[in-house]
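Title: Prediction job returns without error message
Component: structure pipeline
Severity: low
Priority: P3
Assignee: unassigned

Description:
Job completed but the reporter wants confirmation the result is attached to the right record. Sequence as submitted:
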Amino acid sequence: QLQLVESGGRVVQAGDSLRVSCVVSGGSVSNYATGWFRQAPGKEREFVASMSRYMDTTEYAESMKGRFTINKDNAKNTVYLQMNSLKPEDTAVYYCAARSSPLESRYGFQYKFWGQGTQVTVSS
């Protein structure tokens, strides 16, 4: 059973950069398409970014384009989300997810494996 554990979330100032990580165990992340989602208090979970299994395609939510970058290191079995120019509205719990299909997806229901989340708070 694949397990995902996020880390790196913390309190930052508006305009700062932050990278959150997702360590994968129980399988090789090279066999999975991956994604990042987030959920702010009182709001529904929303798509952030996704990447195909072979890292040849990525997709971003419109408000994250140009600011966020998804990447993974197969040797470290880790998925990353680099976030730049952070805004207070980026405050949320960030979740990584994995699916065995080679194709990335922006739809959470298409991901079978999820982490427990890491809190990112952006103060103004």
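Comment from assignee: result matches the submitted record. Residues 91 and 121 are 5 Å apart (CA to CA).
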